[in-house]
Structure formats: C-alpha cells, structure tokens
Amino acid sequence: MVGVKVDGRLERGEQTRRQILRRAAEIASVEGLEGLSIGRLATELEVSKSGVFAHFGSKEELQLATVRAAAKIFLDQVVTPALDLPPGLARLESLLEGWLAYSEGRTFPGGCFFYAVQAEFDARPGRVRDAIAEAGRGWTTLVRDAVEGVPDLVADPDQVAFELIAFLELANAQSVLYDDPAAYRRARTAVRSCLDRAVR
C-alpha cells in the first residue's frame, strides 16, 4: 500500500523466526521435538542464543511453535490444493496423493513430521501432546469427510478413512526405516484397492 512504511526490524525478525521454525521442524522430523534446543538452533542458523530465546522464551513454546509451523507447511502442500477441488472422489484422491508426495518428496528429512513426533508424545500429557493430537484429529476428520463426500460410497466412512490413513503411515514408516521407496508404490496400490471396494 502506498504511503505505508514497513518496519525493517519487524520484517527481519519475522523472517528469522520462520527460518528458526523451518529448521526446528526439520530436526524434529528426525530426532523428535525433544531434540530441539535453543542453543543448537542458534549455532546452526548463526544467530544469537538470546535472539532465539526472545522469539520463544522456553523449550515448550519452541516445540509448540514448531508444531504450528509444520502444520502450516502440511496445510499448504497437502490440504489447500485438495480443497480447491469440489467434494467427491477427486478431492479425496488429491488429499491422499498429496500426503504421499509430501512424505515421499521429503518435505521434512524424517518423512512425515507428525508421524515422527506422535510416538514421542502420545503417552505424555501436556500442551505439546495436545497440539500434536489436535493436528492428527484434524487430518483424520478431513479424510473421513472427504470419504463421506464421495458419491456411491458403499462402506463405512470411518473405517475407510482409518484404512487409508494406515496405508499412508505405513508407507512413510517403511520408507524411512528401511530406505524402501517401493513402499509408496505399494501404498498407492492399497489405496486404489480400498477405494475400488468402497465405491460402487
């Protein structure tokens, strides 16, 4: 907008915050959220420790911000393109293929960020676990609603969504653990078979 002056310090601060969170999500996808430290991020990104601390204030706040940043990346890459399509089979297929491409293309070096951190926090009550669980529930609900929106569905949407998500997550796990790229091909075959059974 003409005549509006942007504060360069604020802009630089926000850019630094984005860089910190991107690197934090990359680390957490491999080493977990407990692998994050303000000192490590400061060293790797060549910024002051006090500067990183000023953005977050505590390790828990850093972890929560990392979960939110990873969710935003996932939303942009997987969810938003699918929601541009009308409800139906094409939207569901876009969500599923988007997830596989996000994992297979190593958006995060450890594969799916949320798959990596779920096991770390699933039995640990607290704000970080709640944030991870909320993201997981949101994805499950999204897939379930997309399944329900498919015309001529002849199966239980909750069961179909459960199976589809299981195929995706197993492909991610086998690819990361066994360095097996064929896991994604098998997942795509399993997804196709599941949809063929579920839709008349």
UniProtKB/TrEMBL annotation:
PANTHER family: HTH-TYPE TRANSCRIPTIONAL REPRESSOR NEMR (PTHR47506:SF6), TRANSCRIPTIONAL REGULATORY PROTEIN (PTHR47506)
DNA-binding region, residue intervals: 37-56
Stored InterPro entries: Homeodomain-like_sf, HTH_TetR, Tet_transcr_reg_TetR-rel_C_sf, TetR_C
UniProt superkingdom: Bacteria
Keyword tags: DNA-binding, Transcription, Transcription regulation
Pfam families: TetR_C_13, TetR_N
Sample GO molecular function, one term: DNA binding
PROSITE patterns, per database record: HTH_TETR_2
Transferase recorded as keyword: no
Name of the protein described by the UniProt record: TetR family transcriptional regulator
Domain HTH tetR-type: 14-74
